[in-house]
Write a structure and sequence with these properties.
By secondary structure, this protein is of the alpha/beta class. The chain has 17 helices and 7 strands. Helix content is about 60%, strand content about 10%. Helix 1 packs antiparallel against helix 3. Bound molecules: 2-acetamido-2-deoxy-beta-D-glucopyranose.
């Protein structure tokens, strides 16, 4: 069956939500409700139906594929989500091939010692290397009578700081890994995925949907990879049955986020031409440093397991979703369903409040 045409309870839920939102926003329901108090119970009915639908979807999608004779390739496994995901999938019994930039560093050494894991050296900016790895993996799996069930394009760099302070070189380098790396991986591995009718999953970010201040180039890159999965779903899924998904975490405590330090901001500021530095001023540098420090300290989530569960779902559920938002339970089930319907004007105000929220949380945590 065409995976695009599978009926999903979430559709029903979202449609009901939007219809009610429009009715409330544009009045007809409010006018009627003043005469008919019973109508006020409609939001409650909505909440109930939506919860029931969510539950149905949850239960239906709990069925998982059998890992027997299935391999998964993951790029960017030196640390962070990639590293954790390798351990998780290998433990479930998949044959996991972990692409590491530095195969002789701590993360890769640890992975190499694990059962069901093999480590390959991979820099996703090298096109020849990516296609070579795909070929080698294809040959090895054929010999072992296995299939490449899934690919996770996870390799990524951080890039934080004001847009004007970030050089074109830095942005190009980040795009080379985060965007072109993902494209190279897709091009090299799609032929193998056609055989298994498997999964292609990318590590996105919530910033790929709503661009963050002081992380604009990074957000642009994540928007590009999200767009890749969305477009390829429409272009390729109907004929190849490959499922494309984008897992979008918010701020998590990974080495990538930890590296976005005040030092990086300082370095970028001091590398600016003097004329621009004078225009921006030290006061602004101080403000940005503080905001980024606060945001990282207060808003990052320590627990990566919720995100790993999202990847797991995308890779192994028999009813995988196309997009996964990963944050706290409260954010995923209450804040995000509302947030995703907000008009951009409202979002600008909410995002402007983000540093203040971080500051408040920081004070709260430190007192
Ligand atoms: C490795 O995979 C097998 C199944 O292929 C599984 O039984 C075993 O538990 C896995 N090993 C580890 C350490 O999880």
């Amino acid at each position: 069956m065409n995976p695009l045409r599978k009926i999903r309870p979430v559709w029903v839920k979202d449609t009901i939500f939007v219809v009610f939102l429009l009715l409330y926003m544009f009045g007809p329901l409010q006018a009627v409700a003043s005469y008919l108090p019973l109508l006020w119970s409609i939001p409650a009915i909505f909440m109930l139906t939506s919860s029931v639908w969510s539950l149905v979807e949850l239960l239906l999608s709990e069925k998982r594929v059998d890992p027997y004779k299935k391999a998964i390739f993951i790029s960017g496994c030196d640390s962070g989500f990639g590293f954790e995901l390798v351990k998780h999938m290998a433990h479930k019994g998949f044959d996991v091939i972990a692409g590491c930039l530095k195969p002789d560093d701590g993360g890769a050494i640890l992975l190499r010692s694990m059962q069901n894991v093999s480590v390959v050296e991979l820099d996703v900016t090298k096109e020849d290397r990516v296609s070579n790895i795909a070929e080698l993996i294809g040959e090895r799996l054929k010999r072992e009578n296995k299939v490449l069930w899934a690919v996770v394009a996870n390799a990524g760099l951080g890039c934080c700081g004001p847009f004007e302070w970030t050089t074109i070189r830095e942005i190009e380098r980040m795009f080379d890994v985060n965007v072109y790396g993902c494209i190279r991986t897709a091009k090299a591995f799609l032929p193998l995925l056609r055989e298994s009718r498997g999964r292609f999953v990318v590590s996105g970010s919530l910033s790929g949907i709503h661009s963050f201040q002081n992380g604009v180039p990074y957000s642009m890159g994540k928007a590009a990879v999200k767009s890749l999965t969305e477009g390829l779903t429409r272009e390729l899924s109907p004929s190849t049955k490959i499922h494309f998904a984008c897992v979008m975490p918010t701020f998590h405590d990974t080495p990538m986020v930890r590296q976005a330090t005040a030092d990086e901001i300082d370095r970028k500021y001091h590398a600016l031409p003097e004329s621009l530095r004078d225009k921006i001023g030290l006061g602004y540098l101080k403000k940005i440093r503080e905001e980024i420090h606060m945001t990282i300290k207060s808003l990052t989530l320590k627990d990566l397991s919720r995100t790993i569960a999202k990847f797991d779902h995308a890779l192994t559920s028999t009813r995988p979703r196309f997009e996964y938002i990963s944050d706290t339970w409260l954010f995923e089930y209450v804040v995000w369903p509302l947030l995703k319907h907000f008009p951009v004007d409202t979002l600008h105000i909410l995002f402007e409040m983000l540093p203040a929220r971080a500051r408040l949380l920081h004070k709260f945590k430190c007192s």
